[in-house]
Amino acid sequence: MWRPHCLRLTRALRASTRNATSGSRSYSQDVSKAAPISTEEFWESFVAIWPYARKTDAPRIALAVSGGVDSMALASLCNSAAKQYDMFPECVGLIIDHKSREGSTEEALWVAEQLRKHAGMSSHVLPLQWPENPHEVTDFETQARRLRYRALGLACREHGLRSILIGHHADDQAETILMRLSVRRVRTGLQGILPVKEIPECYGLHGIHQSGGLDLLPNPTAEEQQHQPIRIETGGIKIIRPLLPFRKERLIATCLADEMPWIEDKTNHDQTLTDRNAIRHMLRYHQLPVALQPESLVGLSHHMQERVEEGRELAEGLLKLCKLRLDLRGGILRVNFVKARLAIDKLAATEGKLARTLATLLLARLVTLVSHVSTVKYDRFDNAVDAVFPTLQSTKISTTPKPFTVSGVYFFPSPVSEAGSILKGEFEWTIGRQAYSNASDAPPVLITPPKNLDRAVAATTPENAGYQLFDGRFWVRIVNPTDQIVHLRPLGKGDLPHITKPIRKIITRVTPGSFIETLPVLTKIDADGNESIIAIPTLGIRLGSRNFVGRIRWSIRYKKIDIGGLDLDEILASQVLDRIDGNLLRKGTERKEKLTTTTAKQPRIIDITGDTKLARRDRPQIRRPLKWKKPETRKGRDEQVIGWQ
């Protein structure tokens, strides 16, 4: 799909590096000839990509300002737009103090003063907290980028800002494309810098990384909470780049016209310091082939963005042909590819490469719904495509699919049955998080300290910060008012013998096979260091002493997912226990009597979790009392909704 363009440009790049000689030619126009960016041009570029465009109640927006000409021109344009357009949002400057060289703090304060003086903009200076001496860091650029974006994200969360404007421009785009060509990062990599993107380097920070949107919505009604106790996260901070259509000389001209001062970073001109500096020097001072000049590189990025979007739209059509059922309680997705496979087979007869590309995009899209990783790599889906779409196999291996793993997600096939008979050659795939191969592969245990923990220590415990991302799939918040430590960890094989058979049946119905080991459970650690399961939070099941378990509170949300144009209600499996599971749960939480040889006044005991013996008064609890509800058919759906409520 993209290979011919990549080969042509890669060959041109090789030729240019062999024949390039320093010369007086520069790709840049004389700055004196460049026109400033007009307010109208900026406004059109801004509203084309801002999610809240043309809304009168648009939220405030952050502006990342380094003091360089790019960000200062952006600040000046924002000031002009705010005066001319009532719908332009209020901007708040965020200035990073890198703390990596002498005078950085004074420089940051100077930038804040210029924003106030020339753009009428309030701002916040954000000092970076280095874990060690920044001069001793080997990968300084990488670490600085991570700390910078996390500081910006945290500041946005603190001040209620949902988007960040950044001053990347067309010259930055050309440099990025040339860098990616030089390291053979082709295909989707040639899209370059995207105008709108999720904030990077903030994985796992709630309210920043693909989360926090639910906190801005009204609380769910009792009925909504009853039918969907696990909600899907929304929101997250966006990076917005409205200056990508403009060349740098026009940004300089804008600052000159508006009398906006800026700082020149001398390190940006040292071609030996970073790869980007070297690329920038080559673009500016070397005679390059037309295909590698900035205009061509920027055009390539636009072309690739259009091609990728076209592919995604076609894959979206295939997604709508799939029959999906997503169970948030275990993060399990069941997919019937019958109609999508027929469409792929028909396309493959005339356009085999396109069919394979779309099959890859489709599978990658499905993987993101249940995977614990934040990104998927398309080049790892070859075997997955062969397994799910056997007609696309270059060498015919087998038409009977076998289980496989891709991007940390396990695919398991089961024959499709209809009207009691198995359909030959048709399979339903159960997709979920791959079981942990060893202890190092398992997610970190989330620890909630007891209430009597020293406050100074508790204040520095990250688990007290609110929602935590567990295993890349569940956002979890736990309130522990007890005097014992509470853990959130995956269910292990060794835990199953300590759970009653009825409860095990419920678990295996939600998370079949090896998926059972990825189900999160709450455990407590007693004074002797013994651990016992007290709850299965995604199922709403509590086990153990009422006096203890009843005091533990939790809130759990599923990670943010993209279902495109699908109807969420149509693909979500019911989270309400059906009649079978309701009966099993009631049996699993009934008290069991044990014969003893001691006095008859001994309390009856509960044998559910392998916990210490529990008195009759400590009956296990579920999250809500069980009450049989008459079967009813939910509007717009075929199946009956039956549950204990």
TrEMBL record:
<dbReference type="Pfam" id="PF01171">
    <property type="entry name" value="ATP_bind_3"/>
</dbReference>
<keyword id="KW-0436">Ligase</keyword>
<keyword id="KW-0547">Nucleotide-binding</keyword>
<feature type="region of interest" description="Disordered">
    <location>
        <begin position="617"/>
        <end position="645"/>
    </location>
</feature>
<feature type="compositionally biased region" description="Basic and acidic residues">
    <location>
        <begin position="629"/>
        <end position="645"/>
    </location>
</feature>
<dbReference type="GO" id="GO:0008033">
    <property type="term" value="P:tRNA processing"/>
</dbReference>
<dbReference type="InterPro" id="IPR011063">
    <property type="entry name" value="TilS/TtcA_N"/>
</dbReference>
<dbReference type="GO" id="GO:0005524">
    <property type="term" value="F:ATP binding"/>
</dbReference>
<dbReference type="InterPro" id="IPR012094">
    <property type="entry name" value="tRNA_Ile_lys_synt"/>
</dbReference>
<feature type="domain" description="tRNA(Ile)-lysidine/2-thiocytidine synthase N-terminal">
    <location>
        <begin position="61"/>
        <end position="281"/>
    </location>
</feature>
<keyword id="KW-0819">tRNA processing</keyword>
<protein>
    <recommendedName>
        <fullName>tRNA(Ile)-lysidine synthetase</fullName>
        <ecNumber>6.3.4.19</ecNumber>
    </recommendedName>
</protein>
<keyword id="KW-0067">ATP-binding</keyword>
<dbReference type="InterPro" id="IPR012795">
    <property type="entry name" value="tRNA_Ile_lys_synt_N"/>
</dbReference>
<dbReference type="GO" id="GO:0032267">
    <property type="term" value="F:tRNA(Ile)-lysidine synthase activity"/>
</dbReference>
<dbReference type="InterPro" id="IPR014729">
    <property type="entry name" value="Rossmann-like_a/b/a_fold"/>
</dbReference>
